[in-house]
Amino acid sequence: MTTKVAFIGMGVMGYPMAGHLQRAGYDVCVYNRTASKAEAWCDEYAGRAASTPAIAAEDADVVMLCVGNDDDVRSVVYGDDGVLAGMRQGAVLIDHTTASAELARELGAACQEQGFEFLDAPVSGGEAGAVNAKLTMMVGGEEKVLSKVQPMLEVMAHHVGLQGPVGSGQLAKMVNQVCIAGVLAGLSEGLAFGKKAGLDPEALVAAISKGSAGSWQMENRSHTMWNGEYDFGFAVDWMRKDLNIAMTEAQKNGASLPVTALIDQLYAEVQALGGNRWDTSSLMQRLVKLH
Amino acid sequence: MTTKVAFIGMGVMGYPMAGHLQRAGYDVCVYNRTASKAEAWCDEYAGRAASTPAIAAEDADVVMLCVGNDDDVRSVVYGDDGVLAGMRQGAVLIDHTTASAELARELGAACQEQGFEFLDAPVSGGEAGAVNAKLTMMVGGEEKVLSKVQPMLEVMAHHVGLQGPVGSGQLAKMVNQVCIAGVLAGLSEGLAFGKKAGLDPEALVAAISKGSAGSWQMENRSHTMWNGEYDFGFAVDWMRKDLNIAMTEAQKNGASLPVTALIDQLYAEVQALGGNRWDTSSLMQRLVKLH
Amino acid sequence: MTTKVAFIGMGVMGYPMAGHLQRAGYDVCVYNRTASKAEAWCDEYAGRAASTPAIAAEDADVVMLCVGNDDDVRSVVYGDDGVLAGMRQGAVLIDHTTASAELARELGAACQEQGFEFLDAPVSGGEAGAVNAKLTMMVGGEEKVLSKVQPMLEVMAHHVGLQGPVGSGQLAKMVNQVCIAGVLAGLSEGLAFGKKAGLDPEALVAAISKGSAGSWQMENRSHTMWNGEYDFGFAVDWMRKDLNIAMTEAQKNGASLPVTALIDQLYAEVQALGGNRWDTSSLMQRLVKLH
Amino acid sequence: MTTKVAFIGMGVMGYPMAGHLQRAGYDVCVYNRTASKAEAWCDEYAGRAASTPAIAAEDADVVMLCVGNDDDVRSVVYGDDGVLAGMRQGAVLIDHTTASAELARELGAACQEQGFEFLDAPVSGGEAGAVNAKLTMMVGGEEKVLSKVQPMLEVMAHHVGLQGPVGSGQLAKMVNQVCIAGVLAGLSEGLAFGKKAGLDPEALVAAISKGSAGSWQMENRSHTMWNGEYDFGFAVDWMRKDLNIAMTEAQKNGASLPVTALIDQLYAEVQALGGNRWDTSSLMQRLVKLH
Ligand SMILES: NC(=O)C1=CN([C@@H]2O[C@H](COP(=O)(O)OP(=O)(O)OC[C@H]3O[C@@H](n4cnc5c(N)ncnc54)[C@H](OP(=O)(O)O)[C@@H]3O)[C@@H](O)[C@H]2O)C=CC1
Ligand SMILES: NC(=O)C1=CN([C@@H]2O[C@H](COP(=O)(O)OP(=O)(O)OC[C@H]3O[C@@H](n4cnc5c(N)ncnc54)[C@H](OP(=O)(O)O)[C@@H]3O)[C@@H](O)[C@H]2O)C=CC1
Ligand SMILES: NC(=O)C1=CN([C@@H]2O[C@H](COP(=O)(O)OP(=O)(O)OC[C@H]3O[C@@H](n4cnc5c(N)ncnc54)[C@H](OP(=O)(O)O)[C@@H]3O)[C@@H](O)[C@H]2O)C=CC1
Predict the structure, then answer these.
(1) What SUPFAM superfamilies has UniProt attached to this entry (chains A, B, C, D) (predicted)?
(2) Mean pLDDT score of chain B, rounded to an integer?
């Protein structure tokens, strides 16, 4: 029998993710707050849409969420119209939203109480990863639950890895974002320095990108950074949300994040330059705009 | 006729670099302040040593330096025993030391005045790169000078790139070090956070190392960082020297390096923990040692 | 007729504040979650205690709160036992808790709706200020409301200043805490440097405390900081709460707080050293403990 | 017999300092690189000028310097025209320049070798302090040397304090500058936040300046900072010189200065805005100029 999936959140990420599932033969019913996006999705993928999360979740074997932040998740999960009100016993709820580990634990407990399974499975890879089914999924939960849905997740992702108990997917994603912040800070200061020093970007990046200074961001973003092109990619607003999730968690687990905290504030300066929707590599822009 | 090379500085880097040249058929004469290392090199490579830089430089077509810092370079270049006192007209002086761009320009001018050619050619790749002839060389100077020595440099390096006029090699190396500092800061805070969060390092790194958080350092150092192993690699003392060269240059070219400057001070805290000779990835140690 | 006051929160601050009012002739009824503290207060000041905030607030002309954080305030304000359930028409609610401006606006709106007046009036001056009635009160709200209660507030404070509409008291307090963080960071790094440099603290502070480096903290804390005495004063945990309130507000108003954010993380390192309840001047301790 | 004084450096500080001495009855001979300033001084104070530092120092009981940085001091001290070439046995050299402790020790050794006494005595108090004879002098050297010149120094300063052996005056001045940096960072972020929050500066500063957030800078600079007035006072360029002296010393004594290092880079951003000669309180300007 065809596995039934409900997918809540037809944003930049959720839309193509749900599309891959439908194309792979799953029976997908989507929900989106703004109905027009759900309709567009139905047109493109010949799929179904529901008028509330609860209705979308009815009969579903698996319910997936990909919305904005903790509060957004709560608003599609709880209440009469929320997915928990519609889910059937034994169904699995998977949250792909980048959110707090606390939320994950809260959802895990709520699911357990009501007879559902739960996984937190935030993703990395950006819009391109979602469109090309090349996401990385960092999963928190029980292995036996993951094993049931692993093939389905691999329709959307090229790496699906269990990180530990519920919440661990989110924690791994926090590490990911903290690492990116540092990489981009070094790259931004390095390239802005290189500009002021009159260096040639092609020769520079050719020399330094293969060695110990190298990074995915250098390989993929140094060219656009040098040219001040930021109108694409993973938005500064999202990044600040994610870094603040990590810093809030750090207040609980006792980690110190001095460099990350500084970078988060430098992103505030990028926002002040109008960069809310710019790619995170726009961290360089405040250095370039100084003059 | 065999090209004659003088190589000044038989340290961790210079020793194997000079060895590759000798093995490749160049006629190498080495000099080292501490004579025992020069003797060891002669034994290992059946080469020659001289008792002063000036004597080593006599008859040499190419004179290479790889010593500690600006002052160290000056002490083997100038004076009666310095290489400039020994070099013959038309010879090329190449400085592989990581030093200031100002020093490079000063050496360039001194060479021009005395009828020599000059290139600054600092390297990256560490001890392993030197031993395996897989260095990256960032070269500052004139193309026609580089073209004369390119084959010789490629004996030691897998990438030899001209970055611009004299000094540009050093400037590119500064960018390299600034980028590394940021990468390692993010990685250190990320991994230390992951430890406090109870994550599994294998699953974590498997998930995040291939995507936009990925870096050479994550690929090659996250395992040792997690285990607190730092007794190898590129020393914190060297890193601080390099970052201070970059920050001094930034004061001249008007670049701002807020994150780099912070990281430099965090390295001071690593030094206070005894980490002067630890690998730069030990930036993580101060976070782990907090408790 | 004697003005009736309800005072909720018999902590370090609230206990002596309520005491001053009772001594000044106001008719004070206190409430504390942990009843023993309320009883102790009644014994010391021959006052009255109530079993819920709502009961304390009945008949009161003025209801004052001084609890921990936003959530704590909500828990004594709302619900059947909360003060709003007990207050009479025209009564004034004054929140002395250091909390968010958002909470202040929320309380202001709730009061308006139910026919009460509201002022946010966070304080500075610490335990000593509370005990000696030398607090500073930063007030947000309407001038005509403040004028009604000003004499009562001046029983506890030597400065009561209107900062603007509801929420402005909290905003001013945020500025206060941000300023303190910077002062203490400079002082900590300066004194720790001075220690390493072998300077004499008496001569040093005598020289620098009267000029442009001078501050209340230098005047009042440099001696204890030098001696590593932190077992008193305003706790690091409270400071982090306050700085995070400011940073959250900054995300809304677009301010950038790079130095503050860094210091907040350095306080995380002080907490990791066991400093949760140490005075904020313990920021120096992480520098001293490096070796 | 009248004490003879040579004063080298008729800059913003040295000019009025030398004037006070002349007015107090000392026999002052000045030298300035740019002769016109020395002439103006002679006109104003009916004093004498010499054509070289060496000639000014001849016959002098005390030789005072107040020039720019380490190199500037060396250029008026050493060589045939330097003060050491002119000084008589037993004379005292006092350096009022803000310079490194290393330079002080070097000058101390040179003086000892040649039969002179030496004190480092950098000042704080700014142009106003110099003009109004209200400087603070932080002195390094021997008590018996200081006691000889103390009355003379008190002609220019309201506080003259011995900080320890030669170099300690400079070390104390470093602490002073580090403290100022922190104070101004907190004040800048606090006031810029207050602006964004729509607060009234008068009410704000009235409330917070008397308590634990208070500082000389808040008392004396918050008004001009709020109004963006920076065209006076102690220049950003000088501040960066001083902070870099402190950071270089910290590399030797093992102190960590994370917040100071960050602030130094933020001053680089103020310089990029054109603020080289602005008062140090212009640290706020980069926050205000974000939009
Ligand atoms: N974009 C990227 O590159 C990446 C994003 N992520 C994370 O994935 C998540 C989704 O990102 P993305 O798709 O880009 O975001 P978008 O803003 O494109 O989409 C957000 C989706 O969530 C819905 N939503 C938001 N709030 C609510 C709410 N309160 N109630 C109901 N629905 C709501 C939106 O509905 P509506 O259409 O009605 O607004 C929309 O469908 C975020 O957590 C993000 O951090 C992770 C990796 C990469
Ligand atoms: N201490 C200081 O130096 C200064 C403190 N402040 C601010 O003043 C406020 C109070 O500080 P302080 O008096 O030191 O704090 P304490 O921890 O000493 O006291 C807190 C008080 O709040 C009560 N409380 C906390 N949470 C709740 C809750 N959920 N429900 C009911 N009551 C609750 C406590 O009750 P219980 O006894 O039952 O725990 C106690 O009476 C804080 O916002 C602080 O930031 C401001 C300036 C200086
Ligand atoms: N200004 C202030 O508020 C304060 C300054 N200081 C410190 O005091 C010192 C002097 O400051 P300030 O008076 O403001 O500086 P100015 O720039 O006003 O004056 C510098 C003086 O030094 C002379 N000078 C500089 N370099 C040389 C050189 N290589 N050879 C000969 N003379 C030289 C200049 O001569 P010329 O006229 O020919 O240029 C001038 O007389 C600095 O170290 C500064 O950091 C300390 C506290 C406050």
Answers:
(1) 6-phosphogluconate dehydrogenase C-terminal domain-like, NAD(P)-binding Rossmann-fold domains
(2) 97
Tell me, in angstroms, the distance from the centre of ligand 3 to residue D8's CA: 10
Q: Is the confidence at residue C121, as pLDDT, over 60?
A: yes
Residues of chain B with CATH 3.40.50.720: 4-164
C280 lines ligand 2 (CB under 6 A): no
Percent of chain C with pLDDT over 90: 98
**B170-198: per-residue pLDDT in tens?**
999 999 999 999 999 999 999 999 999 99
User: Does D211 reach chain A within 8 Å, measured CB to CB?
Assistant: no
Residues 6+ apart with CB under 8 A from B244: B264, D251
Domain D171-288 CATH (choose: 2.30.110.10, 1.10.1040.10, 3.40.50.2300, 2.60.40.1120): 1.10.1040.10
Q: What CATH architecture does domain C4-165 belong to?
A: 3-Layer(aba) Sandwich (3.40)
Model confidence at A1, pLDDT cuts 50, 70, 90, reads: confident
Neighbours of A4 (CB within 10 A): 18
Q: With an 8 Å Cβ cutoff, is A251 touching chain C?
A: yes
CA-based torsion, C47, C53, C58, C61: positive or negative: positive
Distances (CA, A) of C265 to A189, B186, B189, D275: 22, 14, 11, 30
Contacts of D257 (CB under 8 A, 6+ apart): B265, B268, C189, C193, D178, D246, D247, D250
Residue of B nearest to A192 (CA): B255
**Which among B196, B258, B262 has the least Cβ separation from residue A254?**
B196
Cβ neighbors of A163 (< 8 A, separation 6 or more) are A138, A139, A140, A169, A171, A172, B199, B200, B203, B204, B207
Judged against a pLDDT cut of 70, whether residue A85 lies above it is answered with: yes
How many A from CA of A70 to the centre of ligand 1? 11
Distance from CA of B195 to the nearest CA of C (A): 14
Residue C51 is encoded by which pair of tokens? 């079993």
In chain A, which residues fall in CATH 1.10.1040.10? 171-288
Residue of C173, C195, C196, C289 with catalytic role? C173
* Ligand 1 nearest-atom number relative to CA A9: 41
Query: Which residues in D lie closer than 8 A to residue A269 (C-beta atoms)?
Result: 290
Distance from CA of D269 to the nearest CA of A (A): 6
For residue range A23-36, list pLDDT tens digits in order. 999 999 999 999 99
| Structure confidence at residue D1 as a pLDDT band (50, 70, 90) | confident
pLDDT of residue B289: 86
- Quote the pLDDT of residue D291: 57
- Chain C residues with CB inside 8 Å of A244's CB? 251
Count of beta carbons in the 10 Å neighbourhood of residue C162: 24
A212 close to B124: Cβ distance less than 8 angstroms: yes
Strands A135-140 and A123-124: antiparallel
- Catalytic, B173? Answer yes
Residue intervals of chain D classified under CATH 3.40.50.720 are: 4-165
Nearest CA in chain C to A251: C268
Q: Based on C-alpha coordinates, what's the Rg of chain B?
A: 20
pLDDT value for C291: 57
Decide if D204 and C291 are in contact by the 8 Å CB cutoff: no
Mean pLDDT of A54-62: 97
User: What's residue B291's pLDDT?
Assistant: 57
Average confidence (pLDDT) over C60-88: 98
The CATH H-level superfamily of B4-164 is NAD(P)-binding Rossmann-like Domain (3.40.50.720)
Question: ipTM higher than 0.90?
Answer: yes
Nearest residue on chain A to C261, alpha-carbon basis: A261
pLDDT at C252: 97
For position A119, what pLDDT does the model report? 98
Q: What is the mean pLDDT of residues B135-155?
A: 98
